[in-house]
Amino acid sequence: MLEQALLADDHSSLARQLGELALTYSSGDISRAAIFALAAEEWKQAGQPDRALECFQRAVEDGGESMIDPRAGIADTLFELDRPGEAREVIEALRAEGTTTPATAHNIAETLVAYGDLQGGLEWATQAVLVCAEDDPEHVALLRTRYRIRLDLGLPEDELDSLVS
Asked: Which InterPro entries does the record cross-reference, listed alphabetically (predicted)?
């Protein structure tokens, strides 16, 4: 299913199929929330952010495990829908909880940068680098993102930047 839709570049069809799968899914190697999040990403690729937002919200409501907190996807989609105030509220709620995974923090950092908040992106990337275990595959990606943001801000190299390989 996934391969065929990707080869055909048919994100709408794949999103629809993933959404239907999530509705009937009971258990397996991946959570229902993760399937809803995948469907949301496909709706975004298909240029349908309203439908993506619905799927991200269903992922949150489901409460199952997901590699990236679906609320990060909600924030990104709200920015895309030109609702930055709501997006920032979601991001601040995640910050207030203080339990964001490095992968989620990385996603938020990239979202903030994409919508022009380099300083906010740097803060999220830096915090994530500081709590991310060095053997976590996300660590190197976070270091690179942080370094890129610092370059865009015109900041001099610091101790963490020297770790980028």
From this structure: TPR-like_helical_dom_sf
